[in-house]
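Here comes just one.
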Amino acid sequence: MALAQPASDGLPPQRAAPLRGSLATTACMETLQVGYLHAVAAAAGCSLSQPFPDNGIDWHVSHSAPGHTVDDEVTIKVQLKCTYQLPPRTGRDADGSFPFTLDNEHLVKLARTPVAVHKILVVMLVPRDREDWLRAGHDRLDLRHCCYWINLAGHPVTGRRRTTVRIPTARIFDDRALCEIMARVGVGGRP
C-alpha cells in the first residue's frame, strides 16, 4: 500500500472530492467566516459574544489588557460579510482596495457616529468552489482566502438602496490587527 507523500508546501496532496452536505453555499460561507473570527479572537486573547437578536451586528469582541485606560475591558461590535464574487489579488483597484456593496440600512448602522461602542465591518473573500476553502496538514490548517476590516464611521449613503464601499486590502483581519484595534480603542481612540 502506497502512502500519500506531503506536497512541497507541507500539506497532504489533494484527495478526491468528498460527498458534501446540501447546506446552501451562503450558509456555509457564514459558518466559515464565524470560524475565521473565532480563530482570530482566540489568538488575540479576546472573548466573543453573540447578541440575540443580532439587530444588524453579528458579534461583540472584548479584550482585557493592562494598557487600556478607558476601562479594564473594551469591546467592539463586528458585522461579518462573506463573498466569492471577488477573487483575491484580482479585481482590486490601483488604490489597494476592492468594492463591496452594502444595503443602506446596514451601512447606516455601521456608519453612525458618535458611538459608545465602535463597530467594524469584516469582509471575507473565499474561493467560489467549497473544495478550495481549506486544507489541513499535520502542522497547519490553511483557510482561504482572507478577511479584511474597515471602520465605516461617518461613511455617507450614496446609493438609492445600496451603497458601494471600498475595503482596503492593507487591513487584513488577523490576531495582530485585532490586538492593534483593541489597543487603540482601549486608550479612547477609534479602531
Summary: DSSP finds three helices and nine strands in the chain. Residues 64 and 142 are 28 Å apart (CA to CA). The longest helix spans residues 25-44. The two ends are 55 Å apart (CA to CA).
